[in-house]
Amino acid sequence: MPQDMINAMTEYEIGYPNWWRFNVHEWWQYRELFWFLAWRDIKVKYKQTLLGIVWAILQPLALMVLISIFWKRVINIDTGIPYPVFVYSGLIFWGLFSSGVTNASDSMIANGNVIKKVYFPRIIIPSAAILVSLLDFIVTVIFYIVLLVYYDVKIDILTFLLFSAACLVITMLATLGFGLLLAAANIHYRDVRYAIPFLLQLLFFVTPIIFPIAVIESKAFSFILSLNPMATAIHFARTAISIEMIDWSFAAAGLVSSILIFVGGLVLFNKNEIDCADIL
Known about the structure:
Elements: H1 3-8, H2 24-29, H3 31-46, H4 55-74, H5 83-110, H6 112-117, H7 124-150, H8 157-188, H9 192-205, H10 219-226, H11 229-240, H12 248-272, H13 276-279
């Protein structure tokens, strides 16, 4: 072999990464693969379906109707706006979180054959799975705006945009954090996939989706609730439509919690990424 060809050859060794180092530059280099995997997941999800993307609206809509019919009869709370709008404002962000975490947690197992064949940053797989949920969320937001207009809910446009954006950021941080954490855990412990629906169901009932945070009188319980990032996200969603006054201590606790969960998910996934091909 000619000497110039030998000099041009580069040897790469894939070793265990340091937990505090994240190769963001490499993630960016593989951005086309990220978009390809996301588009593939979208096509697979709605392939051979009669209603297609409409299912993204029907699921929270059906929950909204059921909760509005039955739950409203149980409690007598003044939400400031029609109860269906109140519930739907929380359901759309919960749907993004719930489906995103579920998709991301199972994504590594579902793509095991690809992982074994070629190297690429594994974080692309759960991130692309979450993007599918983000597309569904965009569709539900369109219907949400229709609901606001139909029920003639008065909103300040600037407030709506700012707090809705803050709500989306916190939701995505929590979704990515939990998604990466559970995807890494699912590599080693396959029973994680069975625990996720149960855990999400429990978390649903301790998230202020069907009730406002104003009904919580205990400061201790309010603090515990604020550690749930989705509670803060939905608090922002209600603030966006001017039916809740912003509680800055509650919001700060939720924001810090979402950041810690996001960083923790990144760290755990980074530490277990190298084991994917051997375990899957």
